[in-house]
Amino acid sequence: MSANTAATSQPRIRVEGLAQRFPAPDGNGETTVFEDIWFSVEPGEFVCLIGHSGCGKTTLLNILAGLATASAGNVIVSGQEVTGTSLDRAVVFQSHALMPWMTVMGNIAFAVSSKWPRMAKKDLHAHCQKFIDLVHLTGSENKKPSQLSGGMKQRVGIARAMAIEPQIMLLDEPFSALDALTRGSLQDELLSICAETEQTVFMITHDIDEAILLADKIILMTNGPDARICEIVENTLPRERTRNNMHTQANYYPVRNHLIEFLVNRSVGFKDELASPDYDPRHPPVVGPTVVTDEAGETGTGVLRAQA
Amino acid sequence: MKSMSLKTRSIVLSIALLFAFAGLWQLMLPEGTGSAANMDPAYAALMGATAKGASAMPGPLEVAKQIWEHVLNPFYDAGPNDKGIGIQLGYSILRVLVGFSFAIIVAIPLGFLIGMSPLFYRALDPFIQILKPVSPLAWMPLALYTIKDSIISSVFVIFICSVWPMLTNTAFGVASVRKEWLNVAKTLEVGHLRTAFRVILPAAAPTIMTGMRISIGIAWLVIVAAEMLVGGTGIGYFVWNEWNNLSITNVIASIFFIGLIGMVLDMILSALTRFVTYAE
């Protein structure tokens, strides 16, 4: 369990008491987007953050990336406090954010030459080609983004992020603008690439199935304003899951139902749960929904509460 | 007719309109009113053909013939008041290009500064708003007094009229570069200079080029008027000189050449704009 290993090895990302506040639109006081956010991401872990619009998911990701500054709290990456952007943290933007005047190769080479300015031209080309091949865009190197489909553009975005070989990849709803088929195949690719490279990933999504497929750990955020972490759900499905066999896994429905229950009901009225004395923002409850078999042999859904 | 392409049909129509216009022009030519008999002989001699009943207003064929003569021999030089139209146009184009180049050197870096810094945008905005609507020729006396050289003054006037569209368009293009592209550069820890040249400049290039296209159009409008004022050389001076010679034929021929060069300048800038335009 990650909570135990955290004591012995250093987490890749440690978020401590993060808060973001903006001046209220009417000029009186402040609006708190989120408050008292604590969690950590272990090396090689794939973490998804789920929450409704307006809970500050993108703001949180921008703070992790160093593009925004938090009102309070710290982000510590591999033992160092985040004070700005870094080539160790690559971002895949929701809108792919490719430079339309550069080719596929040009976009990736721009990133690679930013990380290794002294890399020889031949090595640079080979390095970029490796990542273009990795996302299955071989043959499209010299195309401009406008000549690519939405899914292909996002593949370039992922290749660009991976090509700088970052310690952490931060993905901001990377597949939300794509159709279901494209989304599915990109999820499969991302899953196999991350399994291969043991890439640490922090991803924002509001697609439950996407989170169950990809994530080792799913962080649930309550509705904004004044959003908190509700709980952290351990994915109880075996890691060898695929999009096609996922729904046949015994624990699929317990996890799925737990997440839907959160999004539909608990995310709204969670303020009451937060008020309970058991809730500690520094150690949000960690749960692992599984199938339980009672004494009579009837199967049902159970939620294992981990020790906070 | 139906089988013709739109392009062919438009060319046919253009030629038809040209002939219709020339015919109308020919029909509306005034009769000559002068009569050498009632004139002082010295004055009649000065009036030349006009005094013998011909109109100073030429017909389309005369103008076409004159244009053809200019085309055949554009670069002759027979003294300060008799130079080929090619030489005169060359002087004007040179002045426009020099003034325009200086405007690029000033407007693009300054536009970058204004576009990237809200502080400079606000601080410089009142100056730009007041100076922009000033007719470039209003600067002419000041230029003549301070520079004390008529040629450089006309170049200065071209500079001042070219600077504003480029400046405002550069500032606008730079300010509206998509935030996400800047964020990409930021997450890749790209330095300021590299961001400016690899991200902001290509992103803003189509807007900047549009500003340059507007500028060169205005500069070509202004050079004619400026050269009429300062005299000496240039197509503006040539037009005014031919007016003083009462050679309406040459005045009309000049109008044709001024239009032609203006069109070519615009086409060059438009081709360059296409070169930097990107599809999103």
Summarize the structure.
Chain A is α/β, with parallel strands linked by helices and 308 residues long.
Describe the structure.
The complex is a heterodimer of chains A (308) and B (280). Chain A has 308 residues and is α/β, with parallel strands linked by helices. Chain A is built from nine helices and twelve strands. Chain A has helices at 2-8, 57-65, 104-115, 121-134, 150-163, 180-197, 208-214, 252-266, 270-275; strands spanning 13-23, 30-41, 46-50, 72-77, 80-81, 89-92, 168-172, 200-205, 217-221, 229-234, 286-293, 299-305. In chain A, a hairpin with a 6-residue loop joins strand 1 and strand 2 (30-41). The radius of gyration of chain A is 20 Å and the shape is globular. Chain A starts with a helix and ends with a strand. The relative contact order of chain A is 0.15. Mean pLDDT of chain A is 86; it is low at 1-7. By secondary structure, chain B is an all-alpha fold. Chain B has a domain at 85-276: MetI-like fold. Helix content of chain B is 75%, strand content 0%. Chain B has helices spanning 6-27, 41-47, 60-72, 85-116, 118-131, 140-147, 150-175, 179-187, 192-230, 235-244, 248-276. In chain B, helix 3 (60-72) crosses helix 11. The model of chain B has no long low-confidence stretch (mean pLDDT 91). Classes of the chains: A alpha/beta (308), B mainly alpha (280).
